[in-house]
């Protein structure tokens, strides 16, 4: 089973979802802004992706600056509280497959954990070619 924690307003998230589907996989799509993961799930996502809590924070959003989260005075527990209160602070997209969990930034990181090959060429929304017609990466991440 493949799951993506998705924000449809985010180009990186849309590109990641499209690459999952380009592999012939229809994932479980969780729009995390309306259905945020509970704390235990969030902690597991972060740990399984090999990140720190701070590494899972989205910095380019209003609550980040408003709350002063750039300051190194907050514990992981406090940062998790903030993400729970403001789901927009969770960086995205997280993808979970039987091969692992990754924060897919850039979106082509998802190719490392997909259990199936790309079925066709894939070009990101911005025109950057990621996969060729043979289903092979155009360039390494």
What's the number of structural domains?
1
At the third CATH level, what is the topology name?
Answer: Glutaredoxin
How many beta-strand elements? 6
**N- to C-terminal distance:** 24 Å
CATH superfamily: Glutaredoxin
For the sheet with most strands, the description reads: 4 strands, mixed
Helix run count: 4
Which CATH top level class fits? Alpha Beta
Q: Note the run of SSEs as H and E.
A: EHEHHHEEEE
Shape, please? Answer: elongated
In terms of DSSP E residues, the strand content is 5-15%
- Helical fraction equals 25-40%
Mean pLDDT: 96
For the record, the CATH architecture stands as: 3-Layer(aba) Sandwich
Q: How would you explain this protein's 3D organization?
A:
The protein has 141 residues and is of the alpha+beta class. The protein has a single domain, classed as 3-Layer(aba) Sandwich (Glutaredoxin), CATH 3.40.30.10. 26% of the residues lie in helices and 15% in strands. It has helices at 11-22, 39-48, 62-66, 76-85, and strands at residues 3-6, 28-31, 94-97, 100-103, 122-123, 129-131. It has a four-stranded mixed sheet with strand order 2-1-3-4, sandwiched between helices.
């Amino acid at each position: 089973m493949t799951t993506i924690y998705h924000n449809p307003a985010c180009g990186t998230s849309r590109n990641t979802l499209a690459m999952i589907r380009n592999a012939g996989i229809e994932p479980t799509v969780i729009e995390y802004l309306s259905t945020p993961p509970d704390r235990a799930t969030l902690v597991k996502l972060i740990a399984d992706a090999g990140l720190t809590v701070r590494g899972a924070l989205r910095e380019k959003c209003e609550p980040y600056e408003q709350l002063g989260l750039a300051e190194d005075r907050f514990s992981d527990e406090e940062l998790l509280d903030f993400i729970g209160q403001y789901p927009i602070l969770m960086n995205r997209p997280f993808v979970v497959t039987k091969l692992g969990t990754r924060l897919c930034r850039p979106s082509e990181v998802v190719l490392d954990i997909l259990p199936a090959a790309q079925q066709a060429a894939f070009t990101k929304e911005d025109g950057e070619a990621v996969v060729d017609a043979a289903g092979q990466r155009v360039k390494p991440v």
